[in-house]
Amino acid sequence: MKRKVVIVDDHPLFSKSMADLLAQTGLEVCALAQNGADALAAVDLHNPELLVVDLSLPDMSGFRVIETAVTRHPGIRCIVVSMHEQAQYAKRALRAGAKGYLVKADDEAVVKACVDAIFNGECFISQQIENSNLIPLDESPKTSLDYADTALLTASEIKVLRLIQQGNTSKDIAKRLKISYRTVQNHRAHMCEKLGLSGTNALLRVAIAEKYRKHDHVNERTKVPKKRAKSVSSRH
User: Fold this and answer.
1) Are 190 and 86 in the same domain?
2) By the number of CB atoms within 10 A of the CB, which of 44, 90, 120, 128 ranks highest?
3) Does one domain contain both 171 and 72?
4) How many structural domains compose the chain?
5) Is the same domain home to 9 and 115?
6) pLDDT in tens, the chain (236 residues)
7) Are 76 and 166 found together in one domain?
8) Domain CATH code at residue 164
């Protein structure tokens, strides 16, 4: 029986190309999704062995999709295929439960090598990732934000987060930003969703921890360096 795969990416042309490639490896593509909710529904329905996921989705982060999928289906293997080449993204994906991390510039041979590796019980990281000699990280309670986390937040959400760091309540934030209390609460809920936080004080704890970090990467989100195209060899 063929192993099944679900692909989630909000660019249909990319999904179709990836589906054709994975079908060549003997996998059965049982669903193409364009958002996280549809992807998780497809995973629940088809119980696939593999989930291929982009990080930037319309309704939730790819990190949250991976975390939810592996919680519901512990045997599923997840591969991220993203435009992000920074090591922070790969580390965050591995922490969420992914077994492979590819970038969209990788060629077909690398994709096939990644699939082979993860079904052999190995992790696979694209060599286009900066400092690609990563190891899987154990999941642990989040106590601070990293570049990959903050890159998922909107400008409005970051404003709210900064005001939380300063000790402002939701009512205070609403007054300062001239928005409704409900809007502030929505921003807080969306941030918790994107960052994988739960509990009434989780966002506050993370915001306070972030306040005292030496390096603030939030403004770097618009400065993703371009890298020259290069050939990629597989890494097992």
Assistant:
1) no
2) 90
3) no
4) 2
5) yes
6) 899 999 999 999 999 999 999 999 999 999 999 999 999 999 999 999 999 999 989 988 899 999 999 999 999 999 999 998 888 888 888 888 999 999 999 999 999 999 999 999 888 999 888 665 544 444 444 445 555 566 677 889 888 988 887 888 899 999 999 999 999 999 988 888 777 666 656 677 666 665 554 334 444 444 444 443 333 344 44
7) no
8) 1.10.10.10
CA–CA distance from 46 to each of 21, 35, 50, 81, 196 (Å)? 20, 16, 11, 21, 25
Which tokens go with 140? 């642990």
